[in-house]
């Protein structure tokens, strides 16, 4: 019997746990919290994660996490979805479809680059 194949990039993602990195000279920074968990309906991939990018003053500008359900709709009739994977961009929260650790890291860094470009921190 052979061991199940490990998801590519998972070790890289897990190794980032607890890391805080400055991403430019202005003081924007990113933080990674990634731990293995029991696979559940809310976390079928067996990960609890929070990848965030912050302004120099600490304001969260970008985030990918699965810490809570996403609220759908607008106004008093909006409801929580069962989906926990989602992304934050400024004040907007949207569902996010986790596929692989590699895709999560690529999607996160793409959002970080877009926000840094919009803020004039990248050309």
Order of helices and strands: HEEEEEEEEH
The first-to-last residue Cα distance is 52 Å
**Largest sheet descriptor:** 6 strands, antiparallel
Rg, Å, rounded: 16 Å
β content, as a range? Answer: 25-35%
Strand order of the largest sheet: 1-2-3-4-7-8
* Oligomeric assembly: single chain
Q: Count every helix, treating DSSP H or I runs of 4 or more residues as helices.
A: 2
Counted beta strands: 8
- Described by the principal axes of the CA atoms, the overall outline is globular
Query: pLDDT under 50 segments (min length 5)?
Result: none
Helix content: 10-25%
Q: How confident overall, as mean pLDDT?
A: 86
How many discrete domains? Answer: 1
Describe this structure in words.
The model has no long low-confidence stretch (mean pLDDT 86). The chain has a six-stranded antiparallel beta sheet with strand order 1-2-3-4-7-8. The chain is globular, with a radius of gyration of 16 Å. The longest helix is centred in the last third of the chain and has 18 residues, at 101-118. It contains two helices and eight strands, in the order H-E-E-E-E-E-E-E-E-H. The chain has one domain. With 123 residues, the protein is α+β, with helices and mostly antiparallel strands.
Which SSEs are present, and which pair or pack?
Blueprint: H1 10-15, E1 20-22, E2 29-36, E3 47-54, E4 60-65, E5 71-72, E6 79-80, E7 86-89, E8 92-95, H2 101-118
Antiparallel strand pairs: 1-2, 2-3, 3-4, 4-7, 5-6, 7-8
Short description:
With 123 residues, the protein is an alpha+beta fold. It has helices at 10-15, 101-118; strands spanning 20-22, 29-36, 47-54, 60-65, 71-72, 79-80, 86-89, 92-95. The protein has one domain (10-118).
């Amino acid at each position: 019997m052979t061991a199940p194949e490990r998801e590519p990039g998972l070790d890289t993602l897990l190794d980032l746990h607890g890391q805080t990195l400055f991403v430019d000279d202005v003081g924007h920074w990113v933080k990674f919290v990634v731990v293995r968990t029991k696979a559940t309906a809310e976390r079928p991939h067996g990960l609890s994660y929070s990848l965030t990018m912050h302004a120099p003053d600490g304001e969260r500008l970008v985030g990918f996490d699965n810490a809570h359900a996403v609220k759908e709709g607008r106004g008093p009739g909006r409801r929580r979805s069962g989906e926990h994977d989602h992304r934050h961009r400024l004040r907007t929260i949207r569902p996010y479809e986790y596929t692989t650790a590699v895709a999560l890291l690529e999607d996160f860094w793409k959002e970080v680059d877009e926000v840094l470009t919009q803020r004039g921190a990248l050309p």
